[in-house]
Amino acid sequence: MTYEDLVEKIKKAGGRVTGQRKIILQQLIKHQNKLQSVDELLYACQQYNSAINLTTIYRNLEFLDGLQLIYKTNIDRATSGYKLINLETHHHYMICSSCGKLLPIEHCPMSDDLIKAAEKEGFTISGHSMEVYGTCQSCS
């Protein structure tokens, strides 16, 4: 997803693209293939604008999550990680617990059996996610 795509979606939703939000978006784009913790994102953004604080980061992540533009998952038990959603494709990820690198799982593991079981119970599936945690080749 490009910066222009993000700006367009934010404006269509009635949001503003402030200077601080621009920096946050640029950092999310720069690290599209890696989960970033709030602390990592804060540190990277403060290199461009020292006025950006933790509240600003959380507020913007909440806003972007509400627009379904970011993906949030756990890096470990205590830390959440964030990345931009690739709207063109549906992915599940293998996540390196050491460096946060994301490796896409090309095939969606959602089985026809699970879909049929949900239908049998009258359950309407609205979405799903799957993450596999481990150590990437570089960190092994």
TrEMBL record:
Reported cofactor(s): Mn(2+); Fe(2+); Zn(2+)
**UniProt-listed Gene3D superfamilies:** 3.30.1490.190, Winged helix-like DNA-binding domain superfamily/Winged helix DNA-binding domain
InterPro entries the UniProt entry points to: FUR (IPR002481), Fur_C (IPR043135), WH-like_DNA-bd_sf (IPR036388), WH_DNA-bd_sf (IPR036390)
Q: Which SUPFAM superfamilies does this one have?
A: Winged helix' DNA-binding domain
Q: Does the keyword Nucleus apply?
A: no
Give the note describing cofactor binding and stoichiometry.
Binds 1 Mn(2+) or Fe(2+) ion per subunit.
Q: Which GO annotations describe the biological process of this protein?
A: negative regulation of DNA-templated transcription; regulation of secondary metabolite biosynthetic process
Say yes or no: keyword Metal-binding present.
yes
Entry binding sites for Fe cation: 90, 128
Protein name as catalogued? Fur family transcriptional regulator, zinc uptake regulator/Fur family transcriptional regulator, ferric uptake regulator
Which species is listed as the source? Halolactibacillus halophilus
